[in-house]
Amino acid sequence: MPAYDRVKIARKVSRPTALDYIHHIFDEFTEFHGDRNFRDDEAVVGGIALLNDTPVTVIGIQKGKTMEENIERNFGQPHPEGYRKALRLMKQAEKFHRPIINFINTSGAYPGVGAEERGQGEAIAKNLMEMALLKVPTISIVIGEGGSGGALALAVTDRVWMLENSIYAVLSPEGFASILWKDPKRAKEAADVMKITADDLLKLNVVEKVIKEVDGGCQNDFGFTANLLKTKLSAEIEELESKDIDTLLEERYERFRKFGEFTE
């Protein structure tokens, strides 16, 4: 499938959201609100739940399926308080020794004036720093769009997975084409060049696993993908919890350090 066709599937309004996966995969989900600083950001949801019988913290970037829901959720573009809420929940998970599972679906962090005034860049940067040192197992799954630092702010984890028709990139194909070629109409060509699909990123070792979807996207058979993801999450959490903390942190460091390596 051409890369831009996967972009269009990843952006479908009918595509299952973070809350869809949370309610299907986990039991007894209790949502927490607020960053204890400014306000609650509806673009980020999170709380505690059970994965089978294991207590976990789950966090997701939430889009809407109607215009009203998307306005409420700011079209899945978090403000800094959303990232600060996520970090608050992750630090709480560390305190109580709960694994962390993140669901990512965003075109990027919200670029509004208010978000910048309240420290959007600092909030993202702090998440990157703090997540690198969390002393609990962490997994992130890109379930739709994984856009720029807005996605990376929840993806400095032990494992990063992608659904088959999701994308993960530093910017959108339209933005890439506009900057490089001064022509956003070349977005389809840009998508091929950028290597943003799950298959591309698995080959590049940027992600560890690709979760299968049915033809046309997981919105056509949500249960298939969600059940498969639950099985794989259960096995992966068990494996990660078997590691001692020093090994877990060292492997996480090496995972991200390899992206900075180069040869002359």
Summarize the structure.
Helices cover 44% and strands 19% of the residues.
What does this structure look like?
The structure is a single chain. This protein has about 260 residues and is of the alpha/beta class. The chain is built from twelve helices and eight strands. The protein has helices at about 5-10, 20-25, 65-70, 80-95, 115, 120-130, 150, 175-180, 185-195, 200-205, 220-240, 245-255, and strands at about 25-30, 45-50, 55-60, 100-105, 140-145, 160-165, 165-170, 210. Strands 1, 2, 3, 4, 5, 6, 7 and 8 form an eight-stranded mixed beta sheet that branches. Strand 5 (about 140-145), helix 7 (about 150) and strand 6 (about 160-165) form a beta-alpha-beta unit. The longest helix has 20 residues, at about 220-240. The mean pLDDT is about 95.
Would you report the number of β strands?
A: 8
The SS-based structural class is alpha/beta
Helicity range: 40-55%
Mean pLDDT: 95
Order of helices and strands: HHEEEHHEHHEHEEHHHEHH
> What spatial form do the alpha-carbon principal axes imply?
globular
Main beta sheet: 8 strands, mixed
Strand content: 15-25%
Count of DSSP-assigned helices: 12
| Radius of gyration, in angstroms, nearest whole number | 17 Å
List the uncertain runs.
none
Give the terminus-to-terminus CA distance.
35 Å
